[in-house]
Structure formats: structure tokens, C-alpha cells
């Protein structure tokens, strides 16, 4: 089975994010870059599927030179080969442009199933998987917590508000991974050594035959709005403090 | 020379389930009405389902001028294939300038597929919208709320996904006139099919839609202690949430997790019990309207976000909150 996993390199969840003074982006100095956690679930599912049905896993990523580390991480986890799409016009690109680049690269290789994270924890747009599915004219199941694949078909579980959908889809298809799908493995030391020798194709937009025309852009970034300072309810008696909180919620905040 | 066609109108895709409009549909309608009034345009709503035409007047009540209805069994239950094909068709035929959907689970699935079909751009999970120079500017959290971005869309329509529970649903009665359209979708077009719907029988409102959330973190010390959280939640009509620490420890199911790698919530009231306030947790709940924190540690970062803080043992305070709430509820 030909399995593709799309990954993105993002700042670690514990990273402090500072907006540049001119609001044009974030300060990248001192940031620890990691594989997007939702993409890790996608890579893990891809590897599990390969172990069950045979085949190989190709990992595809769009980003600057540092993105190679994240591709190597996926290779160290067990993927066979990588495609690194590195083009300055795609740095910080909108979802449509990113998905177009991924689609152009994936069209050149055989694929039966494509995994993406349900969203990346930097831009938080959560769009690339569906756009990619549309550009490749494939069915999609997004935000999946359980997956079962047999030859030619997949069954996925997708939680919605107050229910779970069990969805049957033909292959090839795009699956976007949600937390709960699996527990991603750590790369082993031999895995890391082997990853250094695995092939990674580096391509720019011209090599993929695409020209990037962004459909959305970030005009400016701002720090989050400050919350007004709160009140600490003083006192010794837990019951009195609890009663005061309930009174404030009823009379001042009017939320209960 | 052919006259340039001007996109016009602010549209929404209404969300219904089992024949009832979901609350977020009224939030969408009301937000669209405000934008349309500023632009001097009409509000259109796309409504798909089986036996749903009768819901149009409810959308009218919240400011929708025209409701584009495709009433067909092929739209029950929701599938990406049927919905995206139908919405893309009616949008292409009518060319609205702006298209709004909800950041609900189904809204996320549908809107993102539409970005592909319409070859446009979208701002996801928006908390504020405005018009500047005739164009939509959407404000939204990024890096899970550690920063905010203002997004403009150059494609057409300009799409935005609105976070549920953030935009008010204000009544502003308009005609809600039904315009039927032929979606041109048949069952054969559906490649990903719903085989089964497993209803959650707990009867609890989902975290992303809850008006009140009571959450417990590492300070709960174990799964057996969540009964005090559940009792308070019952009295307040709240949904129970948890921090990543509590979920990773296996105390609560993953579906309860609030934070950057869990659910992003905006309730009217968020009560954080024994949660220190790691960045990734704050990212998921700091747009709550009111925050109450109960924690023994006076230096816990959660207190910087809290409107009301109690520095004390949660095992003493939480049961007393339940007692006090019972008296007034």
C-alpha cells in the first residue's frame, strides 16, 4: 500500500510566542521547532497501516530549510522517503497555496491513502487536509479518532457534538488525524541513524509546476487582549469564600 | 467589453441537525446581518436537509432575507461530498461576496472543503469581524490564542468560520423568503458515507457549545475525585472538562480535554479547579467570558486570567460552591 503522510514543522506547545514589533509575524529566535502534534498522529497511523498491510510511507512537508529536521524525524519513526517542498513563496503561505503545493507533489507519486493532522498548532487554520482532498478529487474524513483500513476501503470514527459518526469511504482518501487516534512512537536510535541515509527529494515551486497566488493573508498580528485584573476572594472559611463566588457570579457577572 | 461582475451579498450556511437549527446558525445569521447592513447588501442562507424548508422563517427572524433551500433525502445525514457539492453550486450561481460558516465539527469539515471547491481563502475560528474598504477583515486567535491575527481574503467569496458562542444571536426580523434550488447531487456522488451514528447518551452539552464548564486538573489527584466536579456541574447545568495532565494520566477521556491539543472553548463561565494554567491550557479557554480559579498555589498562572480567584484547597471549596449554588439555582 502506498501511504503518504503530510507534516508541518511548528513551534513547540510550550513556546512563548512574541509578535514582531511591526505585527508582521512572530519572533522566531529561541523557538524550539517540532513536528505538529496532530501530524505525529498521522505519521503513526501511516506506520501502523504499513506494518499491517505492507507498503511504504512517504512523508511530505512544505517549509524552509529547518523543515528537513521534521522530515528526518518522520523517517526516524519509520517512514521510507521524504519530499521537502522548499520555496520562499510558500513560507507562511495560505492554506490553499500550501495544499496546492502538496497536491502537485503527491500527484507525481502513487498513493492509496493520505494522512494530515486535523490542524497545525501554529496558524490553527485546519484547512489543508480538506483542500488537498478536493484538489486530488478524493473523499475525506476529517478529525478522525479511529481508523480501520482494508484493501480498497476505510472505516473511520469521527466525533461530532453529542455523537460519533462511523464513516465508510473508498480509497484513495484523505484522513485528518485527531488526538486519540493512536500513541505516536518515539524514534529509536537505530531509526535515527537509518533516517540519515533515507532519500529526501527537495523541490521548489517551479519544479512542481505551480505558481503561488495567495487567497488569504495575515494583515497584522497582535498580542492577545489583556484581561482586566481579577479579584482574589479573601478569607479563611472555604464556605464563606464559595458563597461569595456564587454571589458574584449571580449578581455581578450574571452568568448563573 | 463585458462589465465586471460584482460579487454581492453576505451568505451563511445554516447548520441543522435532526430537523432543528443549531444555535450557531442564529449566531451566523446575526453576524451576517450586521455586515450586510454595513455594506447595504442582503443576507442569504443555504439550508440543506430533508424536510427542512419549514425552518426558513426561524432564520428570517435573525436577519436572513433569502433562504436557499435544497430539500432532499440525499442530505440526511450530513456528508462532506453531498453538502460541499451543493453549497459550491449555489454559491457559484449567485456569487455572494462573503460566506460564513461555523467552527463546529461539521462546519469545519464543510467550510474547508469549500475553500478547495471555490479556490478561495478563509479565516478559521474567528472571534471578530469587520468591514474595511468594502472588504471583510476577520480577527482570530493563532498559536492557540497566544497571538491574534487579522486576516483578509483576496479570493471570492471571502470566507470566514465563526467560533460558536462568541457572536451574539440578535433578533432582527427579515423576510426569510424561501428560494428552492436544484443541488444536482445524487447518492452516487457520495464517496464517504455515514454507516452509523452513535449517539452520546450522556445528554451532556458538548464542551465547545457549553455555556458553563467546570474543569478539573492535576490537583484533582485521581479519577475518583471527579464526583465533586460532576456535582457542581450538575447544579450549574455545566459540562465537565479537564486539563491535559488529567487526560494524559488517564483520569478523564480525551474528549474532555480543554487546551491547545484539545478543545478550544468560549463558555460564559469557566471554573478551573486544581488547574495551574499551563500555556497550552490557557490557550484553550482564555476567551471564556468569566473565569473562576480554585487552586492552593497563589502563584498559579491561572490566577492571572481569573475574574474571581479562590486560593484554597479545592476539596474544601468545590463542595461548598455546590452547596451555595444549590441555594440559588
Trace the largest sheet of chain B across and list its strands: 7-11-6-1-4-5-12
Rg over CA atoms of chain A = 22 Å
Architecture of the largest domain in chain A, according to CATH? 3-Layer(aba) Sandwich
Question: Mean of residue pLDDT of chain A?
Answer: 95
| Weakly predicted, low-confidence segments of chain A | none
Write down the domain tally of chain A: 2
Our count of helices of chain B gives 9
Q: What is the CA-CA span between the terminal residues of chain B?
A: 68 Å
Q: What is Rg of chain B?
A: 22 Å
CATH architect. name of the largest domain in chain B = 3-Layer(aba) Sandwich
**Which word captures the global form of chain A?**
globular
Describe the oligomeric state of these chains in a short phrase: heterodimer
Q: What count of structural domains of chain B?
A: 2
Architecture overview:
The complex is a heterodimer of chains A (256) and B (329). Chain A is α/β, with parallel strands linked by helices. Chain A has 2 domains: 2-208, Rossmann fold (3-Layer(aba) Sandwich), CATH 3.40.50; 227-256, no CATH class. Chain A has helices at residues 37-53, 67-77, 95-107, 128-135, 189-195, 205-208, 238-251, and strands at 2-7, 9-11, 33-35, 56-62, 81-85, 113-117, 140-144, 146-150, 153-160, 163-170, 173-177, 200-203, 216-222, 231-232. In chain A, the strands form 3 sheets. Chain A has a 7-stranded parallel beta sheet, sandwiched between helices. In chain A, strands 8-9-10 form a 3-stranded antiparallel beta sheet. Chain A has a two-stranded antiparallel sheet with strand order 2-3. Chain A starts with a strand and ends in a 5-residue tail after the last helix. The mean pLDDT of chain A is 95. Chain B is α/β, with parallel strands linked by helices and 329 residues long. Chain B is built from 9 helices and 18 strands. Chain B has helices at residues 23-39, 56-61, 80-94, 105-118, 227-236, 244-248, 279-285, 302-305, 314-328, and strands at 10-13, 16-17, 20-21, 43-49, 66-71, 98-102, 122-126, 128-132, 135-142, 147-153, 158-162, 177-180, 192-199, 212-216, 239-242, 269-273, 290-295, 308-311. In chain B, strands 7-11-6-1-4-5-12 form a 7-stranded parallel beta sheet, sandwiched between helices. In chain B, strands 15-14-16-17-18 form a 5-stranded parallel beta sheet. In chain B, strands 8-9-10 form a 3-stranded antiparallel beta sheet. In chain B, β16 (269-273), α7 and β17 form a beta-alpha-beta unit. In chain B, α3 (80-94) packs across α4 (105-118). Classes of the chains: A alpha/beta (256), B alpha/beta (329). The interface between A and B is large, with 83 and 95 residues.
Amino acid at each position: 500500500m502506498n501511504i503518504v503522510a503530510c507534516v508541518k514543522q511548528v513551534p513547540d506547545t510550550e513556546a512563548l510566542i512574541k509578535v514582531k514589533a511591526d505585527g508582521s509575524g512572530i519572533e522566531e529566535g529561541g523557538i524550539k521547532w517540532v513536528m505538529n502534534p496532530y501530524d505525529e498522529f498521522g505519521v503513526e497511523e501511516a506506520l501502523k497501516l504499513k506494518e499491517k498491510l505492507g507498503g511504504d510511507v512517504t512523508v511530505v512537508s512544505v517549509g524552509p530549510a529547518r523543515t528537513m529536521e521534521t522530515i528526518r524525524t518522520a523517517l526516524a519513526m519509520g517512514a521510507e522517503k521524504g519530499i521537502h517542498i522548499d520555496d520562499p513563496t510558500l513560507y507562511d503561505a495560505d492554506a490553499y497555496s500550501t495544499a496546492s503545493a502538496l497536491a502537485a507533489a503527491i500527484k507525481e507519486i502513487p498513493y492509496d491513502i493520505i494522512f494530515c493532522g486535523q490542524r497545525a498548532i501554529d496558524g490553527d487554520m485546519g484547512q489543508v487536509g480538506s483542500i488537498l482532498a478536493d484538489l486530488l478529487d478524493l473523499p475525506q474524513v476529517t478529525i478522525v479518532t479511529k481508523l480501520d483500513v482494508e484493501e480498497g476501503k476505510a472505516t473511520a470514527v469521527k466525533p461530532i457534538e453529542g455523537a460519533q459518526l462511523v464513516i465508510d469511504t473508498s480509497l484513495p482518501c484523505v484522513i485528518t488525524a485527531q488526538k486519540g487516534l493512536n500513541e505516536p512512537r518515539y524514534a529509536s536510535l537505530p531509526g535515527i541513524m537509518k533516517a540519515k541515509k533515507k532519500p529526501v527529494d527537495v523541490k521548489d515551486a517551479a519544479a512542481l509546476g505551480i505558481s503561488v497566488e495567495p487567497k488569504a493573508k495575515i494583515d497584522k498580528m497582535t498580542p492577545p487582549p489583556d484581561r482586566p485584573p481579577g479579584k482574589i476572594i479573601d478569607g479563611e472559611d472555604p464556605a464563606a469564600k464559595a458563597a461569595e463566588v456564587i454571589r458574584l457570579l449571580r449578581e455581578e457577572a450574571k452568568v448563573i | 467589453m463585458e462589465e465586471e461582475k460584482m460579487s454581492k451579498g453576505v451568505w451563511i450556511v445554516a447548520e441543522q441537525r435532526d430537523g432543528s437549527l443549531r444555535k450557531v446558525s442564529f449566531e451566523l445569521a446575526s453576524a451576517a446581518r450586521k455586515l450586510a447592513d454595513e455594506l447595504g447588501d442582503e443576507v442569504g442562507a443555504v439550508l440543506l436537509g430533508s424536510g427542512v424548508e419549514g425552518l426558513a422563517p426561524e432564520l428570517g427572524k435573525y436577519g436572513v432575507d433569502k433562504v436557499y433551500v435544497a430539500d432532499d433525502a440525499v442530505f440526511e445525514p450530513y456528508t462532506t461530498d453531498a453538502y460541499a457539492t451543493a453549497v459550491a453550486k449555489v454559491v457559484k450561481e449567485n456569487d455572494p461576496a462573503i460566506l460564513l460558516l461555523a467552527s463546529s465539527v461539521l462546519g469545519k469539515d464543510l467550510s474547508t472543503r469549500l475553500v478547495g471547491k471555490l479556490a478561495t481563502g478563509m479565516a478559521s475560528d474567528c472571534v471578530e469581524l469587520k468591514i474595511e474598504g468594502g472588504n471583510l477583515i476577520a480577527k482570530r486567535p493563532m498559536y492557540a490564542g497566544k497571538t491574534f491575527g487579522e486576516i483578509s481574503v483576496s479570493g471570492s467569496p471571502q470566507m470566514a468560520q465563526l467560533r460558536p458562542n462568541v457572536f451574539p444571536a440578535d433578533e432582527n426580523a427579515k423576510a426569510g423568503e424561501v428560494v428552492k434550488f436544484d443541488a444536482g447531487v445524487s447518492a452516487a456522488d457520495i464517496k464517504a458515507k455515514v454507516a452509523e451514528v452513535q449517539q452520546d447518551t450522556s445528554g451532556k452539552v458538548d464542551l465547545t457549545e457549553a455555556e458553563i464548564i467546570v474543569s478539573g486538573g492535576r490537583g484533582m489527584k485521581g479519577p475518583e475525585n471527579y464526583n465533586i466536579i460532576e456535582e457542581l456541574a450538575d447544579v450549574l447545568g455545566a459540562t465537565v472538562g479537564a486539563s491535559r495532565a488529567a487526560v494524559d494520566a488517564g483520569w478523564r477521556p480525551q474528549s474532555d480535554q480543554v487546551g491547545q491539543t484539545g478543545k478550544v472553548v468560549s463558555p460564559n463561565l469557566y471554573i478551573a479547579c486544581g488547574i495551574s494554567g499551563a500555556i497550552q491550557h490557557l490557550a484553550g479557554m482564555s476567551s471564556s467570558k468569566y473565569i473562576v480559579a480554585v487552586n492552593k498555589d497563589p502563584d498559579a498562572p491561572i490566577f492571572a486570567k481569573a475574574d474571581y480567584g479562590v486560593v484554597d484547597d479545592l476539596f474544601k471549596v468545590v463542595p461548598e460552591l455546590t452547596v451555595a449554588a444549590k441555594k440559588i439555582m
